[in-house]
Amino acid sequence: MDQHRTLQGSGFPDDTGEPDTALAAALETYAATPAAERGPAYLRCLAALTTARVLVPVVAVLGEVEVDEHGLARDKSSDMAAVLLTGRDGRRALLAFSGTATIASWDPQARPVPVTARTAAQAAVQEDAAALLLDVAGPARLVVEGDHLTALAAGWDLVQVGDDLGWVRPG
Questions:
Q1: Measured between alpha carbons, how far is residue 30 from residues 15, 139, 152 in Å?
Q2: I need a surface site. Which of 58, 87, 128, 141 has the fewest CB within 10 A?
Q3: CB–CB of 155/170 below 8 Å?
Q4: Where are the alpha helices (DSSP H) in 11-88?
Q5: How many Å separate Cα 30 from the centre of its chain?
């Protein structure tokens, strides 16, 4: 019997690693906005995330160690894992990055896996993380948590409602 196996593509076959242009513009505005006035800039970042590709870092994690006849330890096996960061308050966040430059500034050895921001948010929720943390090494660090994380993971759209933005279930 002839068996053929097909690897699924990432869904981003022409991805250059550059940040999504709308997300990059929103993050630049967010970074330049004083903290006390960031509300609208933050919401524009969230709106850009609803359609953006992000990069989730995958790193090698030591599985088993074996000791040779001289007592020297060496890696026997390792696994690949997405990265969760634990804050001082004990809450965890799944890391994601807007592009290869921002992931390399954090860890040049991390393997970037392109996914939709929605998929990254879903992974954060599934891992019981309190947040999705975008571009932890800057220049504009963005934290998506609470109802925003839940809505992004569920695929809701952020739309203009009067002078504000609000989450709306699609369809």
A1: 24, 10, 19
A2: 128
A3: yes
A4: 21-32, 39-49
A5: 17
Amino acid at 46: L
CA 168 from chain centre, in angstroms, equals: 22
Is 0.70 surpassed by the pTM of this model? yes
Strands 53-67 and 111-116 turn out to be: antiparallel
Beta partners for residue 55, in sequence order: 97, 114
What tokens were used for 118? 């929605």
Cα 34 to Cα 37, 44, 62, 144, 145, distances in angstroms: 6, 15, 42, 18, 20
Coil vs helix vs strand at 6 = coil
- Given a contact cutoff of 8 angstroms between Cβ atoms, the answer to whether 66 and 103 are in contact is no
Q: What is the DSSP letter of 53?
A: E
Report pLDDT digits (tens) over 37-56. Answer: 888 899 999 999 999 999 99
Q: What is the pLDDT of residues 132-159, one digit of tens each?
A: 999 999 889 999 999 999 999 999 998 8
User: Residue 51: its pLDDT value, please?
Assistant: 93
